[in-house]
Design a protein that fits this description.
The chain has about 220 residues and is an all-alpha fold. The longest helix has about 40 residues.
């Protein structure tokens, strides 16, 4: 039988982590992220940059902690579903590690680079700007592979949930769709950076994730021990 208490904890952590991540991200400095001249100036003048990125990391830790605990809560019925859960857990760990490196690049290295560019004398600005752009492109790559790892984790956990007793199949389908949106985000971030297409995929992923997370926590609370 499914451990309903573990399922409640898992679903609760994922929902809290997702909601916190969405809320904190609204505080991130805005603008056309691919217009580096204007966006770097906005980043340099932002006074809560470190707090926002640290909070994003904490939110992702909570979210992925909930996803990992889902592996122990599910009562999967087949060996293939068990292996899907195991590989999903491994991919979630990889996603968390990649996100930690991503925030080190974005939350620390990029901020230092744009601050140095903004305060540099005119004779050094070109070199400083090129340095900041190089870090930005490194951020694109790290974000791309984090999104790929998270998307694969969600697809594998969706396969495990589809083979679990007492979990409605539509939850697994929605989880898989949210995983696909992360794969799209990874592809777009790696090929064209933080474009409007990536922003649309991010919002779609958030909406789908919130739907299946809320549904899962309701199922967990209605479930008898």
């Amino acid at each position: 039988m499914i451990d309903s208490r573990s399922l409640r904890m898992s679903a609760g952590l994922m929902l809290v982590g997702q909601l916190l991540y969405i809320a904190v991200t609204q505080l991130h400095a805005g603008g056309d992220a691919n217009d580096h001249s204007s966006i770097f100036a906005a980043y340099a003048s932002n006074g809560i940059w470190t707090a926002v990125h640290l909070s994003q990391f904490a939110s992702m830790v909570i979210l992925l902690g909930g996803l990992l605990s889902l592996f122990y809560a599910l009562d999967v019925q087949t060996e293939s579903a068990r292996w899907a859960g195991r590989f999903g857990a491994a991919s979630a760990v990889a996603a968390l590690a990649l996100y930690g490196v991503l925030q080190a690049i974005d939350g620390v290295a990029l901020k230092q680079a744009v601050d140095a560019w903004a305060s540099a004398p005119d004779t050094e600005k070109t070199v400083r700007f090129a340095s900041a752009e190089a870090i930005r492109w490194l951020e694109w790559g790290m974000r791309s592979y984090h999104d790929f790892a998270l998307g694969v984790a969600l697809l594998l956990f969706a396969a495990a949930a589809a083979g679990a007793a007492r979990i409605p199949r539509p939850i697994a389908y929605l989880m898989a769709l949210s995983g696909l949106t992360y794969l799209v985000q990874g592809w777009v971030a790696g090929s064209e950076g933080f474009s409007p297409a990536q922003s649309a995929a991010i919002v779609m992923g958030w909406v789908l994730s919130l739907v299946w997370m809320i549904w899962l926590i309701l199922v967990a609370w209605w479930m008898q021990d």
